[in-house]
Design a protein that fits this description.
CATH topology of the largest domain: UDP N-Acetylglucosamine Acyltransferase, domain 1
Largest sheet: 7 strands, parallel
Helix content: 10-25%
Order of helices and strands: EHEEEHEHEEEEEEEEEEEEEEEEEEE
Radius of gyration: 17 Å
Number of helices: 3
CATH superfamily of the largest domain: Hexapeptide repeat proteins
CATH architecture of the largest domain: 3 Solenoid
Number of strands: 24
Number of domains: 2
Amino acid sequence: MDPEPIVLIGAGGHAAACIDVVEQHGGFHVAGLIGTAAEIGTRVLGYPVLGSDEELANLVAHYPNALVAVGHIRTSEPRVRLFATLVELGYALPVIVSPRAYVSSHASVGSGTIVMHGAVVNANAHVGRNCILNSMSLVEHDAVIGDHCHLATAAAVNGGAAVGARSFVGSHSSIREQVRIGDNCLIGMGCRVLHDCAAGTRVTGQGER
């Protein structure tokens, strides 16, 4: 079958990384991107910025698949809002998995999630909707990742650990096995999280918690 068209919502650096994964995935071809008003008419890696958020209602009839390609570091709010808008408008939100990633057949990954180059999702892991599993990240066996989370490059969530919805785990950070991270948490770069974190916790600076 021919690749289906997909629209990426976002036109920044994360969108460029998503384009590369979509191209390698092979099941979809990038029809274009949605950006800010100032970005309309520009191109990202050769693909046109078709319009801004206001055009989404009109584009769904032509391009029924979409992916939220806005990054998430300080807040998940833009990704959460855009995902809800796409669902309301009737877009299909496929899971995109790089052929250079590994997702166990015994794991589950929610709609709208992208699994980027070198990421691993092991047996009995459960990943929610609209997540970013960035390059080289690890979700070990029996771990649970809530909706709208971002595991940054080389972040590791070890066996049986859980990361609550809308949380961010920074590059090269590790979550110890069985540890529970609450909703809306921010774990900075290079942290080792050894104990549970309540909702809204912010862990910054390299070191242990």
